[in-house]
Amino acid sequence: MTASTPASAGPAIDWAGRVAIPESESPTRLYNGRDLSGWHGHLGKHWVAAENCICGFNTGPVSVSTYLFTKKAYRNFRLLFEVKQTKSAGCAPTMHSGVAILGERISDQEEAYGFKGLLLMFCGDWGIWDTHRRNRVYPPRQPQSMMWRHPSEKLGNWNRIELLIIGNRIRMVNNGHLVIDYLEQREDLFAAPIGFQLHSHTAPQKYLFRGLVLTENPENRLVTVERAQNDCYDPMA
Length: 237
Prior knowledge:
Jelly Rolls; six-stranded antiparallel sheet; 14 strands
């Protein structure tokens, strides 16, 4: 399979059967399973609709990171999705992607779908981190290095992600483990489109995204954390 070939993601995800989304929330599917209506990006060139998933890819060099953006802006939300970094002979041996939130879409001569703001990374080569390298949850006695990989990350397989953004508190869960939890100190946080990143790279890359479900103004609790008593903490304490 080459990096430009869409892949089947299997059956559509029924989150109601896997996680307990609070009854007070009204989930909305960001991807209709057929096409990329409702999204902005280099459609066809770097982003295509596959079976029950969105595929981000490049066959030639990508000089500047490019993003697939929702048309709608979001401020306080819960986002559930699964992501897989495709590992094959036709893909780059190291690559990474992320979710762009609460920022600004940038369009210039170099890249029409650029981004400036908060970027939460899920990385096949660097682990899970944010662009400021300060906001990861480390277990006791674990050195705080950007290169450290959280054991919950599944390379070349599906990873279940939950983002919970309320006020200036940013939380990210990967496969049931809280991996990012911090208070963003910037005061210029505002509603913005959500973007998925295709990172700059000289070699082919391919990422698959599926089960994209979002609720606005969510309850202040995570729904995918398996070890809440051990992995969660309150940065307000």
